[in-house]
Amino acid sequence: MLxxxxxxxxxxDISIEFPGVKALKSVNFTxxxxxxxxxxxxxxxxKSTLMKVLSGAYNHYTxxxxxxxxxxxxxxxxxxxxxxxxxxxxxxxxxxVPYLSAAxxxxxxxxxxxMDKKLFINWKxxxxxxxxxxxxxxxxxxVRKLGEELTLAEKQMVLIARAISSQCKFLILDEPTAPxxxxxxxxxxxxxxxxxxxxxxxIFISHRLPELFKICDEVTVLxxxxxxxxxxxxxxTQNKIVEYMLGKGFEQSFEKRAFVSKxxxxxxxxxxxxxxxxxxxxxxxxxxxxxxAGLVGAGKTELCNAVFGVSNRVNGDIFIKxxxxxxxxxxxxxxxxxxxxxxxxxxxxxLTEESIAVNISSTDISKFSKTLGFFxxxxxxxxxxxxxxxxxxxxxxxxxxxxxxxxxNQQKVVVGKWLHTDAEIFIFDEPTKxxxxxxxxxIFKLIRDLAEQGxxxxxxxxxxxxxxxxxxxxxxxxxxxxxKELRTSETNEEELLFYSTGGH
Length: 504
Prior knowledge:
Blueprint: E1 8-18, E2 21-32, E3 36-41, H1 47-54, E4 62-67, E5 70-72, H2 77-82, E6 85-88, H3 102-106, H4 108-116, H5 123-136, H6 152-165, E7 170-174, H7 182-197, E8 201-205, H8 209-215, E9 218-223, E10 226-232, H9 238-246, E11 264-273, E12 278-285, E13 289-293, H10 300-308, E14 314-320, E15 323-325, H11 330-335, E16 338-341, H12 345-349, H13 356-361, H14 377-390, H15 407-419, E17 425-429, H16 437-452, E18 456-461, H17 464-470, E19 473-478, E20 481-487, H18 493-500
Parallel strand pairs: 3-8, 3-9, 6-7, 7-8, 13-18, 13-19, 16-17, 17-18
Antiparallel strand pairs: 1-2, 1-4, 4-5, 9-10, 11-12, 11-14, 14-15, 19-20
């Protein structure tokens, strides 16, 4: 059930504290039904915390929340939903129930309420109602398809359908386009525009600033837990938003560096992986930052996984320092001094339920082992604290659980766990996915430092501007094939996009 009329949401003087941290300091936020309102900010700015207050996840805040000038105190997610505030979080895989159908996932709350009340569930009616909701969003998804069979984009649409299946006045979308291709993003934007036309207010959290100008009406910027500005999108530029977010310009993030080494470290010849990679050949030199440019589905992740031994179906040759080696598992890759920072950091790169210290020591347990096999907790703690300081990870201590860190800080932990090893080849797969501009700046500096130390860096991304800003050379990949090798200083974004879309 959607909002019938445009509704006004106001959050006034919202403050909240956690042990040792004042996360929000008298923040004001206003959103209207029938508009798309972006909330942006650098790492740790407080945007996710503000939305968790609004959605009922945090209830120990001070300040007031009003809907149509009527005060309300949101004490739980259930209370927020009853007021018409719905959320679709970035990690859709953790919310979709894999063994239930799309229809059951859409009407999960309604089914659960019926079971609680011991009511008979009319499954025919469930499927029909789910079909009507999807049809209302102009979505063609089979309601009988299991959650585990849905694509990432379909999972997200199912969650949006779930949100609007009950009262929905405001829909919070947390990094909704991070896992989507350009085509899927376009489909999502159609759904958002449709909801907007039905007077639903959309609160849109994203680190992809260019897309704000395609879909948003207004932007609120937060910095260090404080309100900075609220403006109509038409009164802003991307550079101005970045300036508000950081309190400074962002030009320094793309400083060029001199690259001179010609010592070959890594060479791939005719790498194939069950049809996903189709004869990939490339090389990377010592101290070089090598870019792999490609759109979603081009084969970037498959290439990174093949070099790191994640896939066991790889054919072709891998050479390190001229010596042909066999990599059948990640263990083999680590032995050959290869490190991987994967695209899906929460699923593959980090132990979310463990501490920062445990994550950092996990890559080489032997370094923290005493004689007779006892584990050196003191050394683990020292190394963790050193890396927290070096990488400027915002954490209370090395014992803080990784799940409680922001996306940017989690990514720093994923990188940091390799820094105390003797890795010489660092593979970064979409390292800035879901990361704000402040954390991006830190990651770029870290990558440059690795290259300056003589480490070889492979940087795979669909963000063409980032590739142009940080790499020395770039291979464009399309449909599992290398289609072009380019010297970064001699190309531009248009040319990269041309080859990444299959141009010849």
